[in-house]
Design brief:
The complex is a heterodimer of chains A (391) and B (114).
Chain A lengths: L6 H16 L7 H11 L3 H8 L4 H11 L16 H16 L7 H8 L6 H8 L4 H23 L6 H26 L2 H12 L2 H11 L2 H13 L7 H31 L3 H6 L1 H29 L8 H26 L7 H36 L9
Helix pairs in contact in A: 1-2, 2-4, 2-6, 2-7, 3-8, 4-7, 5-6, 8-9, 8-10, 8-11, 9-10, 13-15, 15-16, 15-17, 16-17
Chain B lengths: L3 E2 H17 L5 H11 L4 E2 L5 H10 L3 E5 L12 E5 L1 H25 L4
Parallel strand pairs in B: 1-2
Antiparallel strand pairs in B: 3-4
Helix pairs in contact in B: 1-4
Classes of the chains: A mainly alpha (391), B alpha+beta (114).
Chain lengths: 391, 114
């Protein structure tokens, strides 16, 4: 996945490269990113750094204390990023995604930087008397406050998740914009946030107004989604268990009439009942496969997209895909075994099982790729603890 | 001069929004700025409440919205750009006539010049 940056983020990256060249380092590390962002960053992260006294000059000084200048002149051009710097960009991408932004902003680069405890940037901050945790909490605090205000307005609304996603994005963009207007006026993050919240209005009231503005179809969609959908903050396992149970009873409901018809028509004729074996097998195997594959899907999605603190891992994604393939193969054979034991060794059976074992993980991988980022973002929003923010 | 509070405005908010969009398409914040300019800052509207009004207008086909193609300026957040539809234009004209009549009638009753 290619990273795309806003103009300002790109400028910061270019500046980081220049700083690296200026210090005659042959690489761009977290320390150069920090240096660049103290000059080119905007938003709450940059405000936090400024208010804590972290500026380009003292950062550069600390870098030189830790890593001496290189001796040979470095040729111009893009210096390679260190693995940690690359990780910072990964974290930045996640931060952008949580607020549904496709482009990575300088603000996200800073938040990403604050998540990397092992880089030189963290040591520089430590030498300047700041723990990474402290800086990160400060930078996140305003962002969290903004998100919680928006979530207070959106969470009570009965609408489809797609609609809610759009509302969150639009309302957060607005709130952030007026916060920045106020910050430009007062140059005090706490006051700016207070003013912006006052201008925005009471989220609880807004929730009611939003509900009234939506058509009936949204409420219907909400109820439908909620039946089979994830409910915060349950775990993936619990979610899949709940769906499996409901699926089981749904299937039972669908099969009852069929069983009834057979009972009436065939009475105690064994062969007729034997023909129902596939149905019984489905009743057993569908919920079980859904449960197992469901849990594996979430593992795969999180490994593919990088979520909830864990970085992206293509090797783990592949491992989970293999696990899925085995599960599908096993279940397919199991299904055949129950319904038609004598056919188990036949070539078509094995071929179909192999095909299914190949296609199922591929399909789920596609799902994870396409819907994963939005799902993860929704999860973060819906797990926000709305009881704790003070404003 | 006392400021006009949100409650008195809520009934007319949708017509006002249609009116500002007549000047050209805009996103939420821009619509609010236009309203503020036109109302000389006397309108005390809770900004969040603009969006339910916009969503209602959109559902009624009076306005149409698209996400902007390129994120504006330095920040990456996308905004939705709203514009007036033909239907919205008609509703606006009807709303204007209604308002003028309202002012005439009430003005006559209250003895205040329109």
């Amino acid at each position: 996945m290619s990273s795309r940056f806003t103009d300002q983020a790109q400028k910061a990256l270019d500046l980081a490269n220049e700083e690296a060249i200026g210090l005659r380092h042959h690489y761009v590390g977290t320390e150069h990113l920090l240096l660049a962002l103290t000059q080119a960053g905007t938003g709450t992260g940059a405000d936090v750094l400024k208010s804590l006294g972290v500026e380009a000059d003292n950062v550069r000084l600390e870098i030189e204390k830790l890593i001496s200048r290189g001796t040979d002149a470095v040729t111009t051009g893009q210096q390679p990023l260190t693995p940690r710097a690359k990780r910072v960009i990964e974290y930045a991408r996640e931060e952008a995604r949580i607020v549904n932004q496709k482009l990575i902003d300088a603000e996200h680069l800073l938040l990403g930087l604050f998540r990397e405890p092992d880089g030189v940037a963290a040591r520089v901050l430590l030498n300047l008397g700041l723990s990474l945790r402290q800086v990160r909490e400060e930078a996140l605090r305003v962002r969290l406050l903004q998100m919680k205000i928006v979530e207070r307005a959106v969470r009570p609304v009965r609408a489809t998740s797609g609609r809610k996603r759009k509302m969150r994005e639009e309302l957060l963009a607005h709130l952030t914009a007026i916060y920045e207007e106020e910050q430009a006026r007062w140059n005090d993050p706490a006051k700016a946030m207070h003013e912006a919240a006052a201008r925005f209005g009471d989220p609880a009231e807004l929730a009611g107004e939003l509900q009234d503005a939506l058509p009936f179809t949204e409420r219907l969609g909400y109820t439908t989604e909620r039946f089979f959908g994830w409910r915060a903050p349950e775990s993936a396992a619990r979610y899949m268990m709940r769906v499996a149970v409901r699926l089981f009873f749904l299937l039972l409901l669908l099969f009852c009439p069929i069983v009834g018809v057979v009972a009436v028509v065939a009475g105690l004729d064994i062969s007729a009942w034997k023909a129902l074996r596939p149905l019984a097998a489905l009743l057993l195997f569908l919920p079980v496969s859904q449960f197992l594959l469901g849990i594996l899907y979430f593992k795969m999605r999180d490994a593919l997209c990088g979520a909830f603190g864990a970085p992206r891992s293509l090797s783990k994604t592949f491992e989970v895909a293999l696990g899925m393939a085995s599960v599908v193969f096993g279940l397919a054979l199991g299904f055949i075994a129950v319904t038609a034991w004598d056919r188990l060794g036949e070539a078509p059976v094995l071929q179909t099982s192999c095909a299914a074992a190949f296609l199922a993980p591929l399909f789920l991988l596609l799902q994870a790729r396409v819907h994963g980022p939005a799902e993860i973002s929704d999860t973060v929003w819906e797990c926000l603890d709305l009881k704790t923010a003070t404003n | 001069m006392e400021s006009i509070h949100g409650d008195k405005l809520r009934g007319h908010l949708e017509t006002m929004v249609l009116s500002t969009l007549e000047q050209g398409e805009a996103h939420g914040l821009e619509i609010l700025h236009r309203l503020e300019e036109a109302g000389c800052g006397l309108l005390k509207l809770k900004e969040g409440s603009l969006y339910p009004a916009l969503y209602r207008l959109e559902a009624a086909g009076q306005i149409a919205a698209v996400w902007e193609a390129e994120p504006h300026g330095r920040r990456g957040a996308r905004r939705r750009i709203y514009r007036l539809t033909a239907k919205g234009g008609r509703t606006l004209s009807a709303g204007r006539l209604e308002w003028q009549q309202f002012v005439r009638v009430l003005g006559g009753i209250l003895g205040a010049p329109a």
